[in-house]
Amino acid sequence: MKTISFKTLGCRVNLYETDALASRFKAAGYAIAEGDSAANVFIVNTCTVTNTSDQKCRQAIHQIRRKHPEALIVVTGCMVNHKKEELLQSGIADYIIDNERKSALFDIIDEHFKTGYSDPEGYDRDLFSYQPAFDTFHTRSLIKIHDGCNNFCSYCIIPMVRGRATSRPAEDIYDNVREVVAHGFKEVVLTGVNMGRYQYEETNFEQLVENILNIDGDFRVRVSSIEPDQFSDRFLSLLQHEKLAPHMHICLQSGSNDTLKRMHRFYFVEQFRDMCLRIKSVRPDFNLTTDIIVGFPGETETTFKESCDFAREIGFSHIHTFKYSVRTGTKAATLPDQIPERIKSERSEVMRQISLENKTKYFEAMQGKTQRMLIERIDSKGMARGYGENYIPVLLKGENLKRNTFINISLGEIVNQGNEEKMSFVGKSAL
Fold first, then answer.
1. Helix or strand or coil: residue 57?
2. Which H or E run includes 210?
3. 148-174 pLDDT per residue, tens
4. Where in the sequence is the domain holding 35, given as residue range(s)?
5. Distance, first Cα to last Cα, the chain
6. The CATH number of the domain where 277 resides is what?
7. HSE (side-chain half, CA atoms, 13 Å) at 407
8. What is the pTM of this model?
9. 147: closest CA among 125, 132, 164?
């Protein structure tokens, strides 16, 4: 039996692809290694969104080579598409496989062990031919619906490494959902590079979500990171559906119109505000989270303050704060008025504190309310951990609790207050 280990960096699309690949290997009799333990094969699924991402990927690969010199190392993902020739010339890995052939990774490696050699270039390019992930690293089942992007934001290299926008056939998505639900998954998470722009033949994103919600089974649907498209009244009506989780991570990036313009974003602050107000009018307790970049070239104290004020106004319960990092090959890398690292760090800390204040207020407003908790794991002391439908972390102590089951709970005490990443509710059974 061969043993295989996965190292995944970057976005949920990479996580989906890793889950699908791991399930494929396990179904074929490969053992999946835990963490950094010994394995015959190490697969590194890379990210290249920033120069820092590239550095982390290189470090991960070099560390594996030093610790496991005899292992087969396979590097795939966005860094390959961005720096393929560099990786090939470095000899850093045994196989370098681009995103378009990542779905064939099992066949490539299996052929290697059967014949001693495999040619990745001989496999077809296909972004969506991943088998449903039945045995994954996560309780939730990620469902990839879209790849690539046509937006070309000035700071982002993703269109160059993931390609232009392309949508997965709708029937393939429905089949994928049916299969993972039949396998026992209670939550499916829709993911993609820019999935709000999903369009396959006559089916757009709103119709796709509605059709998924109408699939039989006791499961819920969560929409992962999405761009701030102006959702229609039809989509907003879906927010009341019992299967659709009332949480979305909508990427703001800046609360200043001046900065948004230089980022080449496609909306204004006023449009984003209106979208959030419309969502809240349908579901007042809807949980909105976001990304914000601080220290973008030309960001002044005034425009940074506009971002801070807007973040407070909307009340995002979590702000994933990024310090702007120069990405070679993007327009933003050539912009004047680059911000010193010291100021970026100071602004990042300010935004982190706003995020903590927002989360505390949101959690306090949710105390006493009922949530349908999905139990994701139970520790050795019998403490269950999981999330409510609003993507609220919950700790629950009780008898006869089972992993991957729903339980109705009321939200009690807030614990670990002061540490945003560890804030949770103590749940009380509401049965």
1. helix
2. helix 205-213
3. 999 999 999 888 888 899 999 999 999
4. 3-122
5. 46
6. 3.80.30.20
7. 25
8. 0.88
9. 164
Instruction: Compute the Cα dihedral for 409, 411, 415, 419 and give only its sign.
Output: positive
Task: Encode pLDDT of 392-431 as tens digits.
Answer: 999 999 888 999 999 999 999 999 866 777 899 999 886 5
Separation of alpha carbons 185 and 115, rounded Å: 37
Does residue 145 share a domain with residue 11? no
- Helix H or strand E segment including 331: none
CB burial readout 227-247, b (16+ within 10 A) else e: bbbebeeebbebbeeebbbbb
- Tokens linked to 275: 């979208």
Token pair in block for residue 409: 């709970």
Q: The tokens of 24 are what?
A: 């494929």
Whichever domain contains 27, its CATH number is 3.40.50.12160
Q: Please spell the DSSP secondary structure of 235-287, one letter per residue.
A: HHHHTTSTTB-SEEEB--B-S-HHHHHHHT-S--HHHHHHHHHHHHHH-TT-E
Residue 386 belongs to domain with CATH number: 2.40.50
CA distance 81 to 405: 40
Rounded Cα distance, 7 and 205, in Å: 31
Domains in the chain, number: 3
Q: Cα 56–60–64 angle (5° rounding)?
A: 170
Q: Locate 200 and state its tokens.
A: 């396959």
Q: Residue 227 and residue 211: Cα distance in Å, rounded?
A: 21
**Would you tell me how many other CB atoms lie within 10 Å of the CB of residue 32?**
15
